[in-house]
Amino acid sequence: MKKVITYGSFDLFHEGHYRLLKRAKELGDYLIVGVTTEQFDEYRGKMNVIDSLMERIDNIKKTGLADEIIIEDHEGQKLEDIQKYGIDIFTVGSDWKGKFEFLKDYCEVIYLERTKGISSTMMRQKNHKIVRLGIIGSGRIAYRFAQEVKYVSGVNLEGVFNPNIHSAKQLADQYELKFYTKDLEEFFNKIDAVYIASPHKTHYEYIKEALENRKHVLCEKPMVLNVSQAREMFNLAQNNKLVLLEAIKTAYTPGFNKLLSIAKSGKIGRIKDIEATFTKLVSGDVRELNPNEMGGSVTELASYPLLAIVKLLGTNYNNVQFETFIDECGIDLYTKLNIQYNNATATAKVGLGVKSEGQLLISGTQGYIYVEAPWWKTQHFEVRHENLEHNEKFFIKYAGEGLRYEISDFMSLINGNDTKGYKLLPKDSIFISEIIERFLKRENTIVFPY
Ligand code: C2G
User: Fold this and answer.
1) Do 148 and 135 form a contact (C-beta atoms < 8 A)?
2) Do the Cβ atoms of 201 and 220 come closer than 8 Å?
3) Residue 124 pLDDT more than 50?
4) Most exposed: 211, 273, 303, 316, by fewest CB within 10 Å?
5) Ligand 1 centre distance from Cα of residue 384 (Å)
């Protein structure tokens, strides 16, 4: 008797799952299906699972395809099960291609082609629609994003748009997407929501088109480069009851949100000063240094430090000054943004041509918080006091590329689970666009030659 095993969350059970199980069953005589527990999904960074474990097990039972159903609740269980049950074949969808090679020493490993796209009939769950997501752009971040989407339940990456159709095709082929196109109308007709990962000077137009086509939008930072466009887009989204979120991934991570709650809890007294640094040395003919692409340290990197400042001190600042080093093309290669509030001050330091310590320091009247580099991936931070015995350390998981958290929150907002995203509010994004705009206008700016 040939025994086959496969695993999954099988959340919001749909045709893609059914087809996988059917083909898995046909590989042998006896099929065991492992269903992940909430704890294991949490551990492996699978987000936004809606159905309970029991519902997900029942949905498998109803197919009549499983000869046995087990639960998967820990790392390494697959190998144990293969030996425990005398498995001949391990199978899983092709989105996991290459991830289970280590099992080949114990059984045959078969990756079955994943069902592309979400057809309307794929809905077994009435109360939750699986969101059909599209990507605009096919650069580096789009690849990282496509990799992270599979860790979020309730969403399927359907296709990619790029005026450069070859670039779109490359990404679609690598992630086995249902379509790729350079026709924006065709693109919008096939999706419910869009992730905009195009060069930032094109963001405004794409956001506008998407909202006017009634699509929810998650847009890479910096979302737009001036306040009026930011306000206009958030109003357009709100008037159409659509979600518009700026994709500053740090804002949605568990670590950063833990940091904010500790910093605001009074543990370090009243916050008086913030210093947030993000530098990344680049050179050559790259987008970050291209004046035509609105490159420069502030437009490329300032969203992160400004996120920390606005989430800790708010949007009601009094003034901002800039000290910046400009190269011969007018690109800022190192900039300090000094922001004054009524009773606190903050400095953001960003650089593409100067290297510094990528730390976040939150200074208070009773102590301070030190977040080591890369603070924007917030995995470890320390609360430090005058009396060292009171110091505390915090460690929080940061899964994969850290993009699944923003994707998960985006889905929750679309499905209406969250009343309003609190992790990154429109007013926060508007604040960031205002500071960037004031820098681009060189207000209150001292310029140094690089
Ligand atoms: N699947 C598919 N087509 C889809 C969606 C999913 O073939 N459109 C397959 C997946 O490749 C997987 C199975 O259906 O083999 C279950 O999918 P998920 O519930 O998303 O499970 P997953 O998170 O991929 O976990 O230990 C668990 C395994 O790693 C799979």
Assistant:
1) no
2) no
3) no
4) 316
5) 44
